[in-house]
Amino acid sequence: MPEINEITKIRRKVLTEIAQMTFEGRLQTDVENILQSVVTDEGPRYRCCVHKERAVLQDRIKSALSQPMNSTIPEAAAAALDGNIAPAPIIQVLPVACDQCPLDRFIVTDACRNCLAHSCIASCPKKAISVVANRSFIDKSKCVECGLCKRSCPYGAILEISRPCERACELGAITADKARKAVIDYDQCVHCGACKIACPFGAISDRSMIVQVIQRIKAGRRVYALLAPAFIGQFGVQVRPGQVRASLLKVGFHDVLEVSVGADAVAVEEAREFIERTKTKGGLMTTSCCPAFVGMVEKHLPSMKENVSSLVSPMVAAAMNVKKNDPEGIVVFVGPCIAKKSEAERYPGIVDYVLTFEELATTIVGAGVNVTEMTASEFASAGSKDGNIFAKAGGVLQAVENVLAQLAPDVQVAAERCEGLGNCKKCLQEIEAGKRSANFFEGMACTGGCVGGPGVLTDSRVTAKLVENFANAAPEKSAVTNPNSEPLETLGLHRHHKTSGAADS
Amino acid sequence: MLTVELCMGTSCHLMGVQDLVAVLETLPAEQREQIEIKGVTCFKNCGKGPNIRINGELISNATPDRLLEILQANLA
User: Fold this and answer.
1) Of A315, A327, A466, nearest to A389 (Cα)?
2) Each residue of B25-42: pLDDT tens digit?
3) Is B54 a member of any domain?
């Protein structure tokens, strides 16, 4: 997590104001005030003028309300208050925000010698290059960024500068269109959120469901907050878990539960599946808890789909548990992850809403609650050490190995693990090609694991350690023996990726 | 001696008070010794965070650069 920059502050101010207005029942009448309060006439200015900034802000507000970009702000507020969520992608390029990003991908440098060959001019299919002031000149209005000139120049005098979003996407899912706007290819995108974090203009946004969640709370529904194990330290390094729980109860959540309990069930069942596989087909099995990693395998390495463990994620396991005990309850998963928003859509009626830690914190502030001022109640994790360590890269592997050591100490584990989708993809390809040998693989889309996710509030270098301490302090030491954990077979929750092609799209 | 109070409340946490803490933590030892650092839960100025108070003076919308500026002007 880099420094809290202006983009982050603006996004959080918008979310906080929306949350506050929703709690106070004045979103419909006051929503447009945000245009004045977040972008003030006095500045500071980040764009050409105040009007442009407010136009961008309108897009941010609609994204924060999960409403379509072609709606008006009052329409968007009304729809969100009614609980509607527009059927739009989880991550979007905000149309107005990206329009102001005219980065020239190809630049002719001083190394250009205005040579006689003019390979650049000859190579350009759009006739965009001419000679101006004794040097090649690229006419931006004609250039389509194909890169042929760069490749043709014998001096290497043409420089390629990539957009931050393009560079951040390790799956090549975001590119500039002919009008130079960033476009996400949703057949390639796995909603990891790397582009959102990378864009210095904040032009990429994931949609938020805070208003819909607050409305459910205000309607008196039993709304359960399911905290991902990465929640430790997110609301301040000194904040105790009991203060987080007390805050959420004060905000109006009916109960606060830990996803680490679901992670325990997953660790046990994943180990069982691994044992089963080593007895039958053998080969490689990968983890399945990171939705961006699973999405990457499905979309980019389809031949390896069968290698992904058939288990649901800890989120889904924990949510199933809630629904079993309270079918009318509303489940809100809270985590560091944007891809979970996409994963939840595959489980309608199980995971009702997904919020990031950032969105939850703005909701807490919007409710007038300050976590640091809450008295901490006793908080002992219901999850075991195994389940809690899932939040940290290497933790899932560690948990599964711990379970295997108890259930089947004779089974040989040759494990590999990777952080980052590009690294995961490369490593899996090498395993498939026989260049590496492994029978177990932990895949994490984010560097550092979940604590490094795009929705976190505290630097992962700090929280990784805090998560480890919290896991070590858990009263239950093993997923196998944790009495709080519901076995997955009783929930009936294996995914069947052989037959569920449509649902997995 | 300079007293720097930082609001660690949820609103200021969202606005990046931890970046200001990082500034203080990375000061050279001889400067760090001249500062008394205190955490506060709220300055009742939410929405204009991060809020800090230096020798009694409240500073809203504090940034690492602004904090460094004030420190350099006041420290030996």
Assistant:
1) A466
2) 999 998 999 999 999 999
3) no
**ipTM here:** 0.94
Quote the minimal CA–CA distance from A43 to chain B in Å: 13
Contacts of B16 in chain A (CB under 8 A): 3-4, 8-9
Specify whether A66 is located in the same domain as A143.
Answer: no
Q: What pLDDT score does A499 carry?
A: 36
pLDDT in tens, A304-345: 999 999 999 999 999 999 999 999 999 999 999 999 999 999
Question: Which residues of B fall within a CB distance of 8 Å from A376?
Answer: none
Quick: pLDDT tens for A370-401: 999 999 878 999 999 999 999 999 999 999 99
Considering the domain architecture, whether residues A327 and A191 belong to the same structural domain is answered as no
In chain A, residues with a C-beta closer than 8 Å to the C-beta of B8 are 236, 238, 372
Partner residues linked to A440 by β-bridges = A285, A415
Look up the CATH number of the domain holding residue A249.
Answer: 3.40.950.10
Q: What residues in B contact A4, CB-CB < 8 Å? A: 15-16, 18-19
Residue A279 falls within a domain, yes or no?
A: yes
Taking a C-beta distance cutoff of 8 angstroms, is the pair A241, A372 a contact? no
Q: Which domain holds residue A13?
A: 6-101+164-210
Q: What is the domain count for chain A? A: 3
Measured in angstroms, the CA of B10 and the nearest CA of chain A are apart by 5
Residues with Cβ within 8 Å of A138's Cβ and at least 6 positions away in sequence, in order, are A104, A106, A107, A108, A128, A129, A149
B46: closest chain A residue by CA: A365
Mean pLDDT score of chain A: 92
A25 class by beta-carbon count within 10 Å (0-12 exposed, 13-18 middle, 19+ buried): exposed
Return d(Cα A102, Cα A165) in angstroms, integer: 13
Residue A502 resides in a domain: no
Q: Do A235 and B19 touch (CB under 8 A)?
A: no
Nearest Cα of chain A lies from the Cα of B17 at a distance, in angstroms, of: 9
CA angle, residues A330, A331, A336, in degrees to nearest 5? 145
Phi, psi of A159 (to 5 degrees): -100, 140
Q: Which two tokens stand for residue A36?
A: 């004045």
Domain assignment present for residue B53? The answer is no
Do B10 and A235 count as a contact with CB atoms less than 8 A apart?
A: yes
Most confidently modeled range among A352-366, A476-490, B41-55: A352-366
User: Which chain A residues are closer than 8 Å to B47 by Cβ?
Assistant: 13, 16
Position A41 scores a pLDDT of: 78
B11, part of any domain:
yes
pLDDT digits (tens, 9 = 90+) for A434-457: 999 999 999 999 999 999 999 999
User: Per the structure, how many domains does chain B have?
Assistant: 1
A331 and A260 in a common domain: yes
Residues from B contacting A (CB-CB < 8 Å) are: 8-11, 13-16, 18-19, 39, 41-42, 46-47, 64
Tokens standing for residue A160: 């390629």
Is B51 among the domain residues?
Answer: no
